[in-house]
Amino acid sequence: MSWVWKRRAARVVALDQDGRIFLINATDPGDGSKPAWWELPGGGIDGYESSEHAARRELWEEAGIADAEIGPVIWTQHVNFFFAGYHFDQDEVIHVAWCRSDAAQEPQGLELFESMAFRGSRWWTLEELLASDEPTLPPRLREFLPPIVAGELPEVPINIEVPTGTAPAPDPADER
After folding, report:
1. How far apart are CA 149 and CA 126, in angstroms?
2. What's the pTM value of the predicted model, to 2 decimals?
3. Which of 104, 97, 80, 71 is nearest to 9 (CA)?
């Protein structure tokens, strides 16, 4: 029986002044058979942190973005995935945030496996992302992103996890 790391996590839909979304390109350092994917910045919420504080910290650590307006939680999801040989069982809240594209720099505090996984980052227009077939995390990002880019935030966070019993699009990252 393998050990499971249960945790809460915060992710961020970081939008710039032109409505572009910031995504990180990553691979699994523990499984070279998985192709690369594009993901929202984010990670575990430390015991003392609010999700807003964790979102702000993760933007700094993973994107070098120090000045962002962290907005409300817009989405939630529960995910189980393997990354770097570890099994994660994770409840995620996903905030929206606004910042300037020139605020993004190099990552400022990646952990070892994050550093090994990091392949780069970039700002995507909604059109570029919708036209791309590259895997994303969350897997349903393309489905739920358009209203957010248009400034239509949900009043109550939306559960965006892949419904049970449906065949999700292939996700090489196993929901990292």
Report:
1. 8
2. 0.87
3. 80
